[in-house]
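Q: What residues go here?
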């Protein structure tokens, strides 16, 4: 609901970025005048587990060219996937998926972990007076009827 740079995952919870086994940060941007048009545009995967696989970790941008089918990547006991998407209007965005967080045996920080997400879920001041709730129905797979950036975690 609010543009900014957010830590989605930080393992172990509470450690600095330089000490993390895995850290995922994403930048959400509002891409139109509509407050609800908030999408992940940049995503970074860093930490010891990421460095073991790829020097410098992993960096994704929504505008990046992708010619491959996204695959699950294993980092320690967890798996992650970053998927490029786009709206019908052509807005490009990133989706982030992670599974098996509970297998680490460590506390998980970040918005998809045990950290407080109330700030990220609170609309910016300019949008507070314009937020309108809209009833919608999901399809048989639980997907929203319109494209949105998503970050999904599974224990």
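A:
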């Amino acid at each position: 609901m609010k543009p900014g740079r957010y830590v989605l995952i930080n393992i172990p919870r509470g450690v600095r970025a330089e000490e993390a086994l895995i850290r995922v940060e994403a930048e959400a941007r509002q891409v139109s005048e509509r407050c609800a048009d908030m999408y992940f545009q940049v995503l970074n995967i860093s930490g010891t587990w990421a460095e073991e696989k790829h020097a410098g970790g992993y960096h994704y941008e929504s505008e990046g060219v992708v010619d491959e089918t996204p695959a699950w990547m294993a980092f320690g006991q967890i798996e992650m996937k970053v998927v490029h998407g786009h709206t019908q209007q052509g807005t490009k965005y990133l989706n982030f998926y992670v599974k098996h967080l509970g297998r680490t045996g460590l506390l998980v920080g970040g918005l998809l972990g045990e950290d407080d997400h109330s700030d990220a879920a609170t609309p910016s001041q300019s949008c507070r007076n314009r937020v309108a709730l809209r009833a919608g129905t999901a399809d048989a797979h639980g997907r929203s009827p319109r494209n949105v950036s998503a970050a999904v975690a599974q224990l």
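A: Context that may help when evaluating the design: The chain is about 10% helix and 35% strand. Residues 131-145 have pLDDT under 50 and may be disordered.
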